[in-house]
Write a structure and sequence with these properties.
The chain is mostly helical. The chain has a single domain (about 15-160), classed as Arc Repressor Mutant, subunit A (Orthogonal Bundle), CATH 1.10.10.10. Helix content is about 55%, strand content about 5%. The protein has seven helices and three strands, in the order ααβααββααα. It has a three-stranded antiparallel β-sheet. β2 and β3 form a beta hairpin. It starts with 15 loop residues before the first helix and ends in a 19-residue tail after the last helix. InterPro entries: HTH_MarR-typ (IPR000835), MarR/SlyA-like (IPR039422), Transc_reg_Sar_Rot_HTH (IPR055166), WH-like_DNA-bd_sf (IPR036388), WH_DNA-bd_sf (IPR036390). Keywords: Cytoplasm, DNA-binding, Transcription, Transcription regulation.
Amino acid sequence: MAGTDEGDPLHLDQQLCFALYTASRALTGLYREILTDLGLTYPQYLVMLVLWEHDPLPVKELGRALSLDTGTLSPLLRRMEGAGLLTRSRGSEDERVVHVALTDEGARLRERARDIPHRVLCATGLPRDRVEDLRSLLDQVTRSVTGDTDDPTPLTRDPADRRDP
């Protein structure tokens, strides 16, 4: 059959995109399972991670940190506000700016989520240093493909602060 040679550049197993896709689906599925206990979806967890680190924050900055546009982020934030995890408020100096802040309930959820990075790290079967190398390589791929020379996560203070997956 044509295309079954492992050296064929069009062989499915030779595709970087497919390896990334399947790994992403596997990890997102793992997170979905783990996050059920917290009542969060994976995108909501990502929002919480940013807010646990940078609370409060303008929606525009939150979107930049997560690489999400406001059209995607707004319904997500509305559901999270309805769940009592955060509040949204207009800026006092500029009403076009919407700020997002954690509620007490949203802040308390952080403690319950504390073991998630460790659980994910264990599930990968990779040592911590290999995970850090992988994250660095993926950040490099993202910057190269998008042409973005800036840090892909502009709110992250220092790469050394990013210890867990």
